[in-house]
Amino acid sequence: MPPEIKAVTLPADGRIRAVVDAVLPCVDGGRFAVKRVEGEAVEITAHAFTDGHDQVRVRLCWRAEGAPAVEEVEMTPLFNDDWTGRFTPPGPGRYRYTVCAWVDHFRAWRVELQRRVDAADILLAAQAGAALGEEAAARAAGADKKALGQWAKALRKRALAAGRTALDQMDQIEPEIEAIKTLALDPQLAELAARYPDRRFETRFSATSVTAEHPGELPLVVDRERAGFSAWYEMFPRSASVDEGRHGTLNDVAERLPYVAQMGFDVLYLPPIHPIGRSKRKGRNNSLTPEPGDVGSPWAIGAEEGGHKDVLPALGTLADFRALVAKANTLGIEIALDIAFQCAPDHPYVKQHPEWFRWRPDGSVQYAENPPKKYQDIYPFNFETDDWRALWLELKSVFEHWIAQGVKIFRVDNPHTKAFAFWEWCIAEIKSRHPEVLFLAEAFTRPKVMHRLAKLGFSQSYTYFTWRNNKAELTDYFNELSHGFGHDYFRPNAWPNTPDILNEHLHHAPRQVFITRLLLAATLSANYGIYGPAYELMEGRPRAPGSEEYLDSEKYQIRHWKLEPDQYASLHTLIGKLNAIRRVHPALHSNAQLRFFDTGNPLLIAYAKRALAGDGMVTSAVLTIVNLDATFRQTGWVHIDAAWLGVGGTESFEAFDLLSAQHFHWHDGGNFVILDPAEMPAHILRIKP
Amino acid sequence: MPPEIKAVTLPADGRIRAVVDAVLPCVDGGRFAVKRVEGEAVEITAHAFTDGHDQVRVRLCWRAEGAPAVEEVEMTPLFNDDWTGRFTPPGPGRYRYTVCAWVDHFRAWRVELQRRVDAADILLAAQAGAALGEEAAARAAGADKKALGQWAKALRKRALAAGRTALDQMDQIEPEIEAIKTLALDPQLAELAARYPDRRFETRFSATSVTAEHPGELPLVVDRERAGFSAWYEMFPRSASVDEGRHGTLNDVAERLPYVAQMGFDVLYLPPIHPIGRSKRKGRNNSLTPEPGDVGSPWAIGAEEGGHKDVLPALGTLADFRALVAKANTLGIEIALDIAFQCAPDHPYVKQHPEWFRWRPDGSVQYAENPPKKYQDIYPFNFETDDWRALWLELKSVFEHWIAQGVKIFRVDNPHTKAFAFWEWCIAEIKSRHPEVLFLAEAFTRPKVMHRLAKLGFSQSYTYFTWRNNKAELTDYFNELSHGFGHDYFRPNAWPNTPDILNEHLHHAPRQVFITRLLLAATLSANYGIYGPAYELMEGRPRAPGSEEYLDSEKYQIRHWKLEPDQYASLHTLIGKLNAIRRVHPALHSNAQLRFFDTGNPLLIAYAKRALAGDGMVTSAVLTIVNLDATFRQTGWVHIDAAWLGVGGTESFEAFDLLSAQHFHWHDGGNFVILDPAEMPAHILRIKP
Predict the structure, then answer these.
(1) How far is Cα A85 from Cα B455, in angstroms, rounded to an integer?
(2) What's the pTM?
(3) What is the enclosing helix (H) or strand (E) of B233?
(4) DSSP code string of A245-295
(5) What percentage of chain A reaches a pLDDT higher than 90?
(6) What span, in angstroms and rounded, lies between the C-alpha atoms of A186 and A229?
């Protein structure tokens, strides 16, 4: 199999000598976008160099995607050909950035001239510098052009005049040579010349990336701040009635808003609010034989009243929904909707678009199944349908419909059971018109699948936190989330419970376990949420021993929750305090600066988060210590790094417990801690830099 | 700056559901080639999965670059959506590989059928399977087509017949339903169907890479074995005369070949053999005032007798050179030539191509300088010349000229002072016609520049080994070389000395230091070399205290070396033994399997290399322990991992010292070692798996 020998093509211009490599951050060679939030500076590093001893100049180039104008930021050298630069995008949207570099002959000339000692060499170099100055003048305009031209002219004239001195008499004109050198090295002129560089042979980063449209330009998605910092509260609208036995409505949810706001949540997430299928409807506790009056699962979407764009009549109307959104906004709460792309057998789509489903040999529609299990109340879409274009457009229009009603956050149900390509297209399409819209991926599945969805554009992702309980698990997992390869695109959202997951450690658990899991979620992850009122009321009854399903799950029935004011029967006061702590302390608004500290005790976990200013100064630091043992007091020595916390170099510093309002004096190194779960299983210490 | 809103383009086919990601190895997203040697299997891993519960099939696709036929290898799943596959390219050359995947509906159907228990479901699934069988038959031919068709027909017929049984009588035909299930699950038919998969919606890896010509195909360069395993000997031909005072010739080098072969070297590398410039010639010890008769530096290339394609008349003729190559080949030695792209002032290029050089304002050619230092005997090429195409073609023709004389290995002098783009083009161009040709980069410069040259195509690279002396330095550096990010493209070649570098630890050093550095180079690096006879004769006199220059350096004068047969005055016998050990033990032929072991003593370094068969079995293992202290005996406990060495699970095993021919009994865990530098500062232990 001797392949044909082909001449290797010469490049378009072989005089391009600078190299730009390893532009970071970069997800999969530019195939996917890096994510940042509004107001956050984007820090770019790159390798840049050229052959030989020449100097390079390096610039970071960025623009809003679609915008023709490119902004340029001069990058600064670090060590060993590493360069750094930063920019702050003006707002949410899609951006592109790349790095360019060129050989800076003016700078090389200047650096060399500084080191020259031979008089004849200095005079020749001055003439060479005059030529470079004239070239810069030719690229300049106005006063700059004039200044550069005059400088070049003067330099040449004096160098030529001095050059007429015989070589063996050079030492006689030493002061003039020094003066010429001084003129040549004029720092203001150097600065002026630097403004008009010769970029004919500029290199642009091109190592990887992707499209002809964006050669070498890496993609960046900037989301609004809530993408990076949010506290979610999930509740079932139909359980929102204050009257036991009455089906809750969207208006009841509106009445519940002050309660949610008091707890300090900023996202109120509602399970699907659409008409619920009647055919094959499930009964209480997932029974296959429903009783009359059973309300069915909100995820069995669609009935004769309508589908994904409609409101279940028992909940109210589209107008009620818009009113709910409006009232929530006045309290600083956003309504997040659940989008579950699947149909009940009586969903209008089934008749209107039979080609969007799979069919069985007996002429029935293929329901969801995982043999021998059957989910006959759910018809999945067939993403391999020949009519995929119409399907995709319709599904996208569901988001657009709710965006028109004021929704800006979607929680997407099981995105990993729909085609990946659909999500990439759909999210990009939505965000191109509505960059403020956020998507949370509910993909409790294998790691690579979760990561793929995050890369495709989901703004936040559910995590394995729900199953990470002991100190080693928590440490490994949150180190991975904060510092692992996904940190540029995977934004974790940590939930101690969901309607689907009552983890075993919450089964009939005491109050302190609910507190512990809540504190961990809220301080380890900038985005977190709870499913309530089950959580604050510490509901811990599973459907069966070992099952992750709730007994009398709201998925299949209405629950009437008694919203106790008693702080021992409800965690709502503590939750309010916790969310207030989160809001006030910028350290807790991001996961990038998370560090665990040794405690010498496997039941005592300690970690800190901090916020940094542009110059690297610590502006906020919070140190959390949690007793993971529900029963016994635990003690330990927490070994901290005071400098990392921004309080290095002092004898001791104040550590103020934001939970108990106690003042402690801490110092660098080991500090003794004792935590009694019967009182409060944690310290959340504000460290004042 | 609100960018224009543009619809995001729908993909060409939205039904493509499989994902292929993270294909490894991969250098800079496919921008540069991975390197392997002939006969070595190339192991590829990838992430592959699809949405939902469906199964994927994954294939590794590879071909010689330019060859239309693609070879396919079925990949096998590991854990968590990781897949692996391997292929062995047939010989040196350039290859491309990628990974493709598709959703395997036949397999999903079969897996689900195995789990089905409901009789009616089984009969429906059998019909669905019959349809899949017919589709496979339509893609098949000959006997396979017939077999698949018959199976599908029989399956459908029996399923339909049984299906006519009333639903409430199904249990009466249980044996028939079991028989249908057995027929449907026929493993031979499954295998047959798997040979004719439905690949309409196949995904091909495309995350990164580069060119329209090679969509998603990652580049691979396969070199002949010497690229990965070689022992180099450098000598100055003009010092090869046996008669003191006579200028050595290429014929003298030919006479010296048996001596080199006895030492076991397989590459004999000669500094430039071209005419040496007379203008500004340097004298002995780099003097600016040469004496009459001074021979000048071989790197000051070019005089009226010719340039880079000519032989210095005092050395002989092109015919002599060809004869030398031929004789060397009979002894298993290859001649490597030094290519230094720079000119003496009297090089013919200067007059013929003045536009290839930079000019100073006084009308003279710009010589090399690093102010205030001047190298007036060297004119660098100007790679920014407008005539760069002609320059590149001429430089490439220098390699071609020597390839025509039989040279297959080039040591390139200071490649980092020439344009990077030139090297990428030139090496690719040469290797497209001569895949056997190897290039060693002499770039003693900053790490990123060295790595760039390796990525651009250099087959081997000089390293920092020359300056890495203590245990921590050696451990860190060789771990980086073997396991760091460059391991797929950067092939180290370790030299304890070169004509330019007499490192301080060799200054007036005793015999055991020369032995230690030699052993380290030869056992840590599969490619290594020495500059002789300076090395084997233990020349340790610097030009000045602290200088890395040799006193009376051969760079500027002829040396007459007395090739002592006495083994205390020369290391040549030990070198011969060492190179024989290297040759016999495959463990020492590669750096991929290098591991350091704890000794508890900072002056005692221990490390092993091993070779693995395709199935992961250890086929060769060599454990080296070196006393880094030139003066004192050192002892320590070497903590080994017997299983890693292929001798796990035994009470003890033989460790045979290949240097001293001593037998030791070693075991897993700690083993006591004592090494006296006065005798031999090292063990090289063969561990027999």
Answers:
(1) 26
(2) 0.90
(3) strand B230-234
(4) TSPP-HHHHHHHHHHHHHTT-SEEEE---S-B--TT---GGG-SSPPTT--
(5) 89
(6) 50
- Of the ranges A37-51, A160-174, B272-286, which one carries the lowest mean pLDDT score? A160-174
Which ipTM value was assigned to this complex? Answer: 0.88
Q: Position of tokens 């002129």?
A: A189
In terms of Cα–Cα distance, which of A678, A272, A639 is closest to A515? A678
**Is-catalytic flag, B566?**
no
Neighbours of A178 (CB within 10 A): 12
How many angstroms separate the CA atoms of B6 and B377, rounded?
Answer: 61
Domain boundaries, chain A: 19-104+202-222, 106-194, 231-273+311-341+395-567, 589-687
- Contact in structure between B376 and B312 (CB atoms under 8 Å): no
| pLDDT tens by residue, A570-606 | 999 999 999 999 999 999 999 999 999 999 999 999 9
Say if residue A372's pLDDT is above 90.
no
CA–CA separation, B241 and B564 (whole Å)? 15
Percentage, residues of chain B above pLDDT 90: 89
Residues of B in Cβ contact (< 8 Å) with A62 = none
Start-to-end C-alpha separation, chain B: 69
Instruction: State chain A's mean pLDDT as an integer.
Output: 94
Torsion of CA A61, A66, A67, A70, to 10 degrees: 10
Fold match flag (A19-104+202-222 vs A231-273+311-341+395-567): no
Residues 6+ apart with CB under 8 A from B416: A51, A52, B441, B443, B445, B449, B450, B453
User: Is the separation of the CB atoms in B569 and B510 below 8 Å?
Assistant: no
Sheet (strand A82-87) strand order: A19-24, A42-49, A82-87, A76-77
Alpha-carbon gap, residue B487 to B471, rounded angstroms: 21
For chain A, say whether B418 makes contact (Cβ under 8 Å). Answer: yes
Tokens matching residue B276: 């040496």
Q: Using alpha carbons, list the distances in angstroms from residue A151 to A108, A158, A495.
A: 18, 11, 67
C-alpha torsion B672→B676→B681→B687, nearest 10: -30
Among the listed residues B135, B413, B554, B668, the single catalytic one is B413
| Residues B34-52: tens digit of each pLDDT | 999 999 999 999 999 999 9
pLDDT (average), residues A642-654:
93
Q: Residue B667: beta bridge partners?
A: none
Provide CATH code, domain B589-687.
2.60.40.1180
DSSP state letters, B98-161: EEEEEE-HHHHHHHHHHH---HHHHHHHHHHHHHHHHHHHHH--HHHHHHHHHHHHHHHHHHHH
Task: Pick the residue from chain A with its C-alpha nearest to B22.
Answer: A28
| φ/ψ (deg, to 5) at B321 | -65, -45
The SS3 call for residue A23 is: strand
Using a CB–CB cutoff of 8 Å, tell me whether B49 touches chain A. yes
Q: Is A24 on the interface with B (CB under 8 A)?
A: no
The catalytic position among B334, B442, B488, B548 is: B442
Residues of B in contact with A21 (CB under 8 A): 28, 448, 452
Query: What single-letter DSSP state applies at residue B173?
Result: G
Nearest-by-Cβ selection for B8 from A21, A380, A432: A432
- pLDDT band, very low/low/confident/very high, at B209 (cuts 50, 70, 90): very low
Q: Backbone phi, then psi, for B552, in 5-degree steps?
A: 50, 50
Work out the pLDDT band at A61, boundaries 50, 70, 90. very high
Which 3-state string (H, E, C) describes A634-673? EEEEEEECCCCCCCCCCCCEEEEECCCCCEEEECCEEEEE
Is residue A266 flagged as an active site residue? no
CATH of B231-273+311-341+395-567, one of 2.60.40.10, 3.40.50.10540, 3.20.20.80, 1.10.10.10: 3.20.20.80
Architecture label for domain B19-104+202-222: Sandwich (2.60)
Q: Is the dihedral of CA B643, B644, B647, B652 positive or negative?
A: negative
